[in-house]
Design a protein that fits this description.
The complex is a heterotrimer. Chain A is mainly α. Helices cover 67% and strands 2% of the residues of chain A. Chain C has 17 helices and 22 strands.
Chain lengths: 321, 386, 530
């Protein structure tokens, strides 16, 4: 097994989690919890894949995926922002809807192949010892988009005027409203942005990292994992990216480990056919729970919590008693 | 033009059921449009569903068989949701329940040849214990560590499936197949067909004792939620946790107990499925009962009695939906129904007023007496307003 | 939204002191909310360089009128002119652009952000990048000019309420507000902080800016205002009368339409045994910062002990510690039984009743029926409890009885309590708590936001309970209320009891000084000087 390949693979599939998690961070920083990430990713995955199949152009597929993700998020936005429905329920509904619709639309897509998005090697950077080949060699263009998106998202939130407004809307919408910031407008914008990124995450799977359509197995819970990462990341894009890469790296370790005969001199119990591989497959999910426990505890200790208005519909001028 | 929601001060009794039915109708219409769009025939599909689920006593019985696990998992969700505890883990609890019941037979925990009268209750207990444990874990995580229960339960669903696979593919595998050996007769729940000798009309009817579990559980849950002190506490916690704490209720403990009970009910569903329908343990025993249960509970407004009705409807959808192409249609319909239900719920709580905004300008300083109240917040309303 | 183009800043060479130059004029304002006419053809004007007080009870329509001026609401009819030009504000932003800013009673600050970030929030500059350091310096200079002491780099949640108010004022000044509307600004301030605020307002009017000062307190209105407008039930009952020459009695009559000087019938104070004894209690607040730093106090049977403190000095946490809702160190004894760190239900069984600060989501469960809310403290005991069941009919009987006895205006006992008015909600809570026949009642802000009639009811119920021999701990930010009801006043500052007075000794000046961290020693020379 080649450790470099595994790490490079981790970077690639970490990009999927990164897009979805950053999208969710944007929505949650604006005060809207969107639990529909899994559904939006599936729809993005199927839309990207089938559009590429029809047009032969993965870029058009990519745009389709992002559009579909954005549209689904818009539905969630209307229901939770204007209609003030429970964000948890609406998000769950979105996941059900996305999953079902993706299966309908994905009918007959299994066992087909499409053109991938291009992958390339970054000239100078790939020569950096150790890190270079892992991070900058033969990676999909979307991986590099991820590299750029992370600092950009962080800086947008922390260092710019729109970011200041975004944070205000999620922390104290009434205060933001009083300063003339369009609370609804911003919430719509960031929820839809979150959907666009979730759609992108879905397309990253089907058009770049693991091309093909495998029904709901295509996303296989990664939307939920992304939501877990957001809590672990304490709503910070950089921490979300680190978590995403880390997480995705230990998952493909499965594949690597299973090829090894002996570990530390002991017979490898995780080889295919030896049933312990199921326990190894559980690890990612248990890891998410562990990470969320960690995130919740840290948040409590360092007094950094969720955005204060997360999950609460904003109604202007609601006269309290 | 703006859309404005005004809280209703009183809700007519007919409104809520009418809107629920309306929501389902709208959802079916939308789904029909989607089916037509991908080249299907919605009318034929719906007629097929109707016919294949309620068309004869035989298929009605099959519908009830599909409804049985939905009744139990739906009750499990309804109980948790009452407390605003989002247990999305009924699927995993169902699987663990099935595993627990199977373990009684396959380990075996009881000697071979144990009569049904003892074996069945032991399996029920084991199923409820295993499912209850799978509910207890997220309950403790939430109550003691503040871990979001949605994520915990979802992750545990995946873990539960892998756990089942570990046994089914490994230790319990029947000569390498992805299933265990068949259970002995004493471990099977009696079906109506078993009594065909006495009542010939029962011949071929697959309805099993699990249905009775569902009905009895619904009755007990109703008593528990609507009449008992614990039910009162759950209502209080569900509406305002801070008020509940103020009233001297230990929320953490209630939360863990409710989560465990919820898991146990879902576990009973798993037991009833392996013992009443499948007759052995497989990894694919659930076509997503635990997830459909979320919608069943929501459609039933978390009321035990209505869960039964909703579960039968969705049982029909799952039964007949298997033959509909494309195969994702039932799942899609479920998603759309949930969305329209949410909107219907909003309409129950709020009155929607659509207003043309009358510009209040200096020129309009002497407005006619009948000027509509321009009280609408001048909030920007992209998306919904226009 | 049409906004008049921004008029030039009042410059030094054109002193804007002419009495007839109106900063704001509102003519025939009408505003209806479902069920109420909040403003019924209201006229109001504000001159340049004056402090104009708007006086009225809760619900008289003052805040509605000012919210209209500040662009938060649109009037159903009527016209607003700012510096002579008709305006139609679509949002507070438009109002600020026209030079008109409002400081609300509930601050509109983002707790997790810094003072500077809050001041910059919603502005067009900086365009994209936040240059925190430059802005901080600029804001610091502005604060200094008006005597607004506040650290620009601090996060809002770290500030006292008084400091937060300064941030709000700073926000408006930074936006170039020439007209400032202050909604009940002294409600959250200690007397000395209020004096500081008045000095700031004076320095603003000296520069030609104008201030509207909303209040329901007669004394401070007479102290700060140049002119006074009084409102009652949506109508103006006195329009811009000069403050000099106005009398409290006259203003009070116009405010409520009858003599309000509430006279409380108090039975003589006969202290009994010590019911509540708090010893060296320490506790953290929700942010895990120390809120109580060694509090000790006693409350006897038949005694009302009032806690005088500025918001955020530990009084809310003290109430929670006593009622079992917050963990603590130290000792809390109720009739000699330790209750610290016991569950809320244990405290309940010891005969402690609690009127909580937040009556809509702690004191009641909003979407449950009046019946369900009234049995909240007694569903564990018969007759409501029948074994493990709840006896619906006896619960209903109790609810009907309480509704009639305490005159809770609710259509039926099945009505969800979120539909009740604040006064009725508080009646329901008091009914429930008093009917537990408590040995100790902890009442936190029991009259906040209520109208005069409801306040009287609450006061009467508290005094009745005292007469029956209960011990009462009264926590209120209304110093007048504390002084009117209490047999003993304990002053809290930064989590400690810094002074204790009997009703006879209680003196508003000394109490005010202690509330703001001054000591008795500071007070003596001030008294000598005054």
């Amino acid at each position: 097994m080649d450790l470099g390949l595994i790490l490079a693979g981790g970077i690639a599939s970490g990009t999927v989690l990164l897009f979805a998690a950053i999208g969710e961070i944007f929505a949650e920083r604006a005060g809207i919890l969107n639990l529909g990430v899994e559904g939006m990713m599936l729809m993005g995955a199927v839309a990207g894949f089938s559009t590429t199949l029809t047009t032969g152009n993965p870029w058009i597929g990519l745009v389709a995926a992002m559009t579909v993700g954005g549209l689904l998020a818009l539905l969630h936005a209307v229901v939770t922002i204007h209609l003030r429905a429970d964000q948890v329920v609406s998000g769950l509904a979105l996941t059900f809807l996305g999953t079902g619709l993706a299966r309908v639309l994905g009918e007959g897509l299994a066992n087909t192949n499409v053109a991938r998005l291009p992958a390339f090697t970054v000239p100078v950077l790939s020569n950096i010892p150790i890190v270079g080949p892992i991070v900058f060699r033969d990676q999909s263009v979307l991986v590099y988009v991820g590299f750029v998106l992370v600092p950009l998202a962080w800086f947008w939130i922390e260092g710019t005027r729109p970011g200041l407004h975004l944070r205000a809307v999620g922390e104290a919408p009434a205060a933001a409203d009083a300063q003339g910031i369009g609370v609804y407008r911003l919430r719509y914008a960031y929820v839809v942005l979150g959907g666009v990124l979730a759609g992108l995450a879905g397309a990253t799977i089907t058009l770049a990292v693991a091309p093909g359509w495998f029904g709901d197995q295509t996303v296989n819970g990664r939307g939920w994992i992304a939501i877990g990462l957001v809590i672990f990341a304490r709503w910070n894009p950089i921490r979300a990216a680190i978590g995403g890469y880390l997480f995705a790296t230990i998952t493909p370790f499965n594949l690597g480990l299973q090829g090894v005969d002996r570990i530390l001199g002991f017979e490898n119990p995780f080889l295919p056919g030896r049933s312990a591989t199921f326990f190894l497959d559980m690890l990612p999910y248990l890891f998410v729970i562990a990470v969320v426990i960690l995130g919740s505890r840290q948040a409590a200790r360092r007094r950094i919590g969720a955005p204060a208005a997360l999950g609460i519909p904003y109604v202007r001028g609601e006269r309290g008693r | 033009m703006t859309i404005r929601l005004e809280p209703r001060t009183s809700v007519p009794r007919w409104l809520s059921p009418a809107l629920t039915i309306g929501a389902v109708a709208v959802a079916l219409t939308i789904s029909g449009a989607v089916i037509a769009a991908v080249g299907g025939d919605p009318v034929a599909s719906y007629l097929h569903i109707l016919n294949a689920s309620f068309g004869s006593v035989g298929v009605l019985s099959d519908t009830l068989v599909k409804a049985t696990p939905l009744i139990l998992t739906g009750l499990a969700c309804a109980l948790a949701f009452r407390m605003r505890l989002w247990n999305i883990g009924a699927e995993g609890q169902f699987l663990l329940g099935a595993w627990g019941a199977s373990a009684v037979v396959l380990f075996p925990l009881v000697p071979d040849g144990t009569p049904a009268i003892i074996l069945i209750p032991v399996m029920m207990l084991a199923g409820m214990l295993a499912g209850g444990l799978w509910g207890f874990i997220p309950g403790v995580l939430r109550a003691r560590l503040g871990v979001n229960e949605i994520i915990a339960t979802l992750m545990l669903n995946y873990v539960a499936l892998l756990w089942i696979q570990f046994w089914v593919f490994g230790a319990w595998s029947e000569s390498g197949f992805q299933q265990t050996k068949a259970f002995p007769d004493a471990a099977l729940l009696p079906r109506l067909a078993d009594f065909a000798d006495a009542v010939p009309a029962f011949a071929g009817l697959t309805v099993h004792l699990g249905l009775l579990f569902g009905l009895v559980t619904a009755g007990l849950l109703w008593l528990f939620l609507e009449r008992s002190r614990w039910g009162y506490e759950i209502r209080l916690i569900g509406d305002s946790p801070r008020a509940a704490r103020y009233a001297g209720i230990d929320i953490g403990r209630r939360l863990i107990i409710v989560f465990a009970i919820s898991g146990a009910i879902a576990g009973l569903a798993g037991m009833s499925e392996v013992s009443g329908v499948v007759g052995r343990l497989q990894d694919r025993i659930s076509p997503g009962y635990g997830f459909t249960a979320v919608i069943v509970a929501y459609l039933a407004k978390f009321r035990p009695g209505r869960v039964i009705v909703a579960a039968i409807l969705f049982g029909a959808l799952i039964l007949a939906g298997r033959e509909i192409q494309p195969s994702g249609v039932p799942a899609m319909i479920q998603g759309i129904i949930l969305f329209t239900l949410i909107v219907a719920d909003v309409l129950v709580r709020y009155r929607v007023r659509i207003e043309r905004r009358v510009p209040v300008t200096a020129a309009a300083a002497s407005p006619p007496a009948a000027s509509p109240p321009a009280a609408s917040p001048p909030a920007p309303s992209p998306g919904a307003g226009g | 939204m049409t906004v008049a183009p921004e008029p030039p800043e009042p410059s030094g060479d054109a002193p804007p002191t002419a009495a007839d130059s109106l900063a704001v004029q509102a003519i025939g304002i009408v505003k209806e909310f479902p069920g109420v006419v909040a403003n019924d053809h209201v006229d109001f004007d504000l001159r340049r360089g004056e402090v104009h007080a708007l006086l009225g009870e809760n619900g008289a329509g003052k805040s509605t009128l000012m919210n209209i001026l500040a662009g938060l609401y649109r009037p159903d009819a009527g016209e607003v002119r700012v510096e002579g030009r008709p305006v139609d504000f679509g949002s507070p932003r438009d109002a600020i652009a026209a030079g008109l800013g409002m400081v609300h009673q509930h601050f509109t600050l983002v707790p997790s952000q810094t003072v500077t970030e809050n001041v910059l929030l919603g502005l067009d500059r900086p365009r994209f990048l936040l240059h925190e350091r430059e802005s901080e310096a600029e804001i610091g200079r502005l604060a200094e000019r008006f005597g607004l002491r506040v650290p620009p780099g601090a996060r809002i949640w770290q500030l006292s309420v008084g400091e937060q108010q300064r941030v709000e004022i700073l926000k408006m000044l930074y936006r170039g507000a020439r007209i400032l509307i202050m909604d009940e600004p002294t409600a959250v301030l200690a007397p000395q902080e209020a004096d500081e605020l008045f000095a700031t307002l004076r320095s603003m009017t000296a520069e030609g800016r104008s201030v509207v000062f909303i209040s329901h307190k007669l004394g401070e209105v007479l102290a700060i205002a140049d002119r006074i407008t009084v409102m009652r039930r949506g109508k103006v009952t006195a329009a811009g009368i000069p403050a000099t020459g106005a009398t409290k009695a006259d203003l009070a009559r116009r405010m409520v339409g009858r003599s309000v000087l509430e006279t409380l019938e108090r039975t003589p104070f006969e202290p009994g045994e010590v019911v509540l004894s708090v010893r060296d209690v320490v506790a953290d607040n929700d942010r895990l910062l120390p809120a109580l730093r060694g509090v000790s106090l006693d409350v006897r049977a038949g005694e009302i002990v009032g806690i005088a403190a500025v918001a955020g000095n530990g009084q809310s946490e003290l109430a929670e510690v006593i009622t079992g809702l917050r963990p603590c160190g130290g000792e809390v004894l109720v009739r000699g039984h330790a209750v610290a760190n016991r569950s809320a239900s244990t405290v309940l069984r010891r005969g402690v009743a609690h009127v909580p600060e937040d009556r809509t989501s702690v004191g009641t469960a909003p979407n449950l029926s009046l019946t369900d809310n009234l049995i909240m403290k007694r569903y564990r005991q018969p007759p409501v409890a029948r074994g493990w069941l709840v006896d619906e009919s006896s619960a209903r009987a109790i609810a009907l009885d309480l509704r009639d006895t305490y005159r809770i205006a609710a259509p039926t006992v099945d009505t969800e309590v979120r539909l009740l008015s604040g006064g009725n909600l508080q009646r329901a809570i008091l009914a429930r708590e008093i009917e537990t026949r408590p040995g100790l009642l902890v009442a936190v802000q029991p009259t906040r936001g209520l109208d005069v009639g409801a306040i009287e009811t609450v006061h009467r119920l508290l005094l009745d309970l005292r007469a029956k021999g209960a011990a009462i701990l009264l926590i209120s930010e209304e110093l007048d209320e504390i002084l009117a009801l209490s047999d003993r006043v304990d002053v809290m500052y930064e989590g400690r009891v810094v002074g204790s007075f009997t009703a006879a000794e209680a003196d508003i000046g000394r109490i005010g000084l202690l509330m703001t961290g001054g000591s008795e020693a500071d007070h003596a020379p001030a008294e000598a000087a005054g």
